[in-house]
Specification:
With 455 residues, this protein is an alpha/beta fold. The protein is built from seven helices and 22 strands. It has helices at 5-10, 55-63, 95-113, 126-138, 171-176, 239-242, 244-255; strands at 21-22, 41-44, 71-73, 118-123, 142-148, 188-193, 204-205, 210-214, 228-231, 270-277, 293-299, 312-315, 321-327, 332-338, 344-349, 361-362, 376-381, 394-396, 413-418, 426-431, 434-439, 447-452.
Length: 455
């Protein structure tokens, strides 16, 4: 019997994970006392992202008895950082913008739940907003702060770009890291990091466009003096937040006990809804898009072909919201998104085992010069991790990406530009043991297919 990665993860609830590596300073604070009830939790996304990345984490929390109404995930209005934190930039946010939005979300979660303190869990840049809120007088509202892959000492620490919030030598990070301890008393801090696979914790600058140039930081950059610092092995920058392994440590730290299960418990009936957003001026935002049409189809998981007519169809109003759509937890789905001033985008997703109100849809970028001769364009996306790392096996139609001339994976996506004769055929993407099928659509009609691996 062949064991797939997904089968292993599904069985992980009955087997303890290997103990994470403890770094120096990991025992610098006492373990939080076991609460009678897990505090309300606010999940915070990273640079350019949205709250939907926390979907599977929320499902795992629910599967361990945490009530959905005691959790929230913020959607920053303009999630992308400014190039210069002190200079206003259209469609981008400053550190102060993020601090202000996060502080308001904390107040709202406290009001809704009646709790005096909440726990914060952040991915990447989110850790900056969390630390900024806490250091700016918000410590009394926060019980726990979990920072996943946050470049706490910078993505780089150099003399150029002095006003970048990602510069470890810049005023923003020097302010957060000032003092003998880098954490605020009264709040339990946990950092989760990779053992060498985080592209934003590298001594060489190749991941930030400067190969061969020292960054001034290293793999230990996400750690904080005075925090509990855990190393999760060779997970990547996003996986240290969204992987089941990360979930185990997040839950254990906040609840002060092991999760009863790692696997997601399916629901018999699934309702999906979400938000349509866009990329005005080229910057991804979480601002609502009105007048977008969302059609949902059940598709054959082996071929990507539609099984009948749309199971849901609607147009977004001023709030950009769509749904709810009733689906089965076993269905593979195609979301056809026709958004104003954007290509018609077909998003193929593996089944949704539980309901969610954060199935957010963002149309693909307009076709560019590299796409002009393509008969079809297919984008493979793995939003909870990255393609192409040395430890990964990635196949496109059964071939290594290097053998597919029309597409080479970079970061979290792989783009295939196919000849006209390939329009209408199916493309199979495989990341290790995870597999998804997308159908090709003609680029001449300004259509793009996106296949997203949910787990």
């Amino acid at each position: 019997m062949k064991l797939s990665r997904r089968m292993i993860l599904q069985g992980a609830g009955s087997l303890p994970f290997a103990i994470a590596s403890l770094r120096a300073g990991a025992l610098a604070q006492p373990a939080p006392a076991a609460p009678s009830e897990v505090p309300p939790i606010l999940f915070v996304h990273g640079n350019g992202d949205y709250d939907a990345l926390w979907m599977t984490t929320l499902w795992r929390m629910e599967s361990n008895g945490v009530a959905r109404d005691r959790m929230a995930a913020i959607n920053f209005t303009d999630p992308l950082a400014r190039s210069d934190d002190k200079v206003e930039q259209a469609g981008r946010s400053s550190t102060e913008d993020q601090r202000r939005e996060l502080a308001a979300a904390i107040v709202e979660l406290k009001r809704r739940t009646g709790a005096s303190r909440v726990a914060l869990v952040g991915s990447s840049r989110a850790g900056y907003a969390i630390r900024n809120v806490i250091k700016s007088g918000g410590a009394g509202d926060i019980s726990h702060a979990v920072l996943c892959g946050t470049p706490n000492h910078g993505v780089f620490a150099t003399d150029d770009q002095p006003n970048s919030e990602f510069n470890g030598r810049g005023a923003f990070l020097r302010g957060l890291n000032a003092g003998e301890s880098e954490v605020t008393p009264g709040v339990a801090f946990l950092t989760l990091r990779s053992d060498g696979m985080d592209k934003y914790a590298q001594a060489d600058g190749r991941f930030i466009g400067k190969p061969g140039t020292p960054t001034g930081v290293n793999v230990e950059g996400p750690e904080l003096k005075g925090a509990t610092n855990l190393v999760l092995g060779t997970l990547d920058h996003r996986e240290v937040a969204f992987h089941p392994r990360a979930f185990r440590e997040i839950y254990r730290f906040i609840a002060a006990r092991e999760p009863a299960r790692i696997a997601i418990v399916p629901e018999q009936s699934v309702r999906l809804s979400g938000l349509v957003t866009g990329t005005p001026g080229g910057s991804p935002t979480n601002r609502p898009v009105a007048g977008a049409t969302v059609d949902i189809f059940c598709v054959d998981p082996e071929t990507g072909e539609r099984k009948g007519s749309a199971v849901y169809s609607a147009k977004t109003g001023a709030d950009g919201r769509w749904g709810p759509a009733q689906v089965e937890p076993s269905w593979s789905l195609e979301f056809a998104l026709a958004s104003p001033d954007a290509p018609t985008t077909h998003i193929y997703r593996s089944p949704f085992p539980r309901s969610s109100e954060m199935v957010h849809l963002r149309a693909a970028r307009p076709l560019g010069p590299a796409d002009k001769d393509a008969g079809a364009v297919v984008i493979m996306s793995r939003p909870r991790g990255y393609f192409g790392l040395p430890r990964d096996v990635v196949l496109l139609d059964g071939k290594e990406p290097a053998d597919v001339k029309s597409g080479v994976p970079t970061d979290s996506t792989a783009t295939l530009r196919l000849p006209a004769g390939d329009v209408g055929r199916n493309i199979v993407a495989q990341f290790n043991e995870e597999r998804i099928v997308a159908r090709t659509w003609p680029a001449s009609e300004n259509r793009i297919a996106i296949a997203e691996l949910t787990y």
